[in-house]
Design brief:
By secondary structure, the protein is of the alpha+beta class. The protein is 20% helix and 27% strand. Bound molecules: zinc ion (ZN).
Length: 202
């Protein structure tokens, strides 16, 4: 028997993979706000080096560095929603990210000689990339390496899986919110022309 839920899920699965960035309706977008520097391993490397200089095409990912981050770790909440997602960097800074050796290795490769500090995050408070949110699941030990974190119980971690990440050709200023939020139509209009026609960072 085909349940309504199964039909909806199939539609969501298709939608996660098949849409045109230029025409997807404003109400179908969602956004997620990250703390710096966790946006960096998702969207920034090799798309903007040095700071505030944005270049395309995105250079190849240098060998020996961690894979770009395609798994966003979140405690408390999960989502059944799939589709186009704005990556927004808030004004908050996470020192665990600053100390993360993978983030530091990427930073050194992109911005040699420049310290990895909050001050360098001149794009805080901006949408910097778009992606497709294609999955969300509860973490299990060892899943979604190398960026997937694992925790169970009261502080269980969920994995939000990103694909087709495209760093915007210029960042767009926006206010951030918690969890998954729906960007207003004006923000969608600003972001849309900044989405590069072909995939940027993987
Ligand atoms: Zn996972």
């Amino acid at each position: 028997m085909t349940t309504a839920r199964a039909v909806m899920q199939r539609r969501l699965d298709e939608y996660a993979w098949e849409f045109d960035w230029a025409t997807v309706p404003a109400e179908d977008w969602r956004a997620i706000t990250l703390k710096g520097p966790w946006d960096f391993p998702i969207a920034a490397p090799f798309a903007r080096a040095p700071i505030a200089e944005w270049s395309y095409p995105v250079p190849a990912h240098p060998a020996g560095l961690p894979e770009p981050k395609r798994c966003e770790n979140r405690t408390w909440w999960s989502t059944a929603w799939r589709g186009p997602l704005m990556i927004h960097v808030g004004k908050n800074w996470d020192e665990d990210g600053e100390d993360d050796p993978r983030v530091r290795a990427m930073w050194r490769a992109v911005c040699p000689g420049l310290p990895l500090t909050r001050k360098a995050w001149t794009w805080a408070g901006h949408v910097t990339a778009v992606a497709r949110l294609v999955d969300c699941h509860r973490s299990s030990p060892g899943c979604c390496p190398p960026w997937g974190a694992y925790a169970t119980g009261r502080y269980a971690i969920n994995h939000l899986i990103l694909r087709d990440v495209r760093a915007l050709t210029a960042p767009v200023g926006a206010r951030g919110y918690q969890q998954l939020w729906t960007p207003h139509a004006g923000l969608v209009e600003q972001v849309r022309p900044m989405v590069p026609a072909t995939g940027g960072a993987r």
